[in-house]
Amino acid sequence: MIKLNKIHKIYTQGKIGFHALKDVSLFFKQDERVVVYGKSGCGKTTLLNLIAGLDRPSSGDMVISDKLTTKFTESEWDYFRNHNIGFIFQQFNLIEHLPVIENVAISAKISGHRHNNARKMALEMLKKVGLEKHALKKPRQLSGGERQRVGIARALINNPDIILADEPTGALDRTTGNQIMDLITEMAKDKLLIIVTHDMKLAQKYATRLIELQDGVVTKDTAPDMDKVTIRLKRDIHKRSLSFIEGIRLALHNIKARKWRTGLVAFGLSIGIVGLLLISALFNTIRDSMHAEGAALRDNPELSIYRPFDPDQDAHDMLSAIEDNHPFFLDLSYVPDYPLTIIENETSGTVYRNPVSLGHYIGTPVHPDILRIYDSFVGDGRLPETSDEFVLPLSKAQALFSTHIDLSHDELWNRLNHHQFSLSTNFHYAPFELENEFEPCLKVENWDEDPDTLPQSFTDRFGDYETHMETLTPYTDEPVKIYDHEQKHLFCDDYSSLNWFIDRDNHKEVTTLRLVGIIDDRNINNALFHPDFLLTLEIQKTALSNDQNIDNENREKVIAYIGNDHIDQKAAIIRSLENEGYMVQETTNVSFNFLAGLTLLFTYIIQFIFSSIIGIAVITAGLMLLMVLYISIIERTREIGLIRAMGGTRKDIRTIFVGETTMIGLFAGLLSIGIALILVLLGNHVFNQQLHVLLSRYFENIPVDGIFSLDIRIMLYAVIGSIIIAITSGLIPAVSASRKQPIEALKKD
Question: Model-level pTM?
Answer without folding.
Answer: 0.51
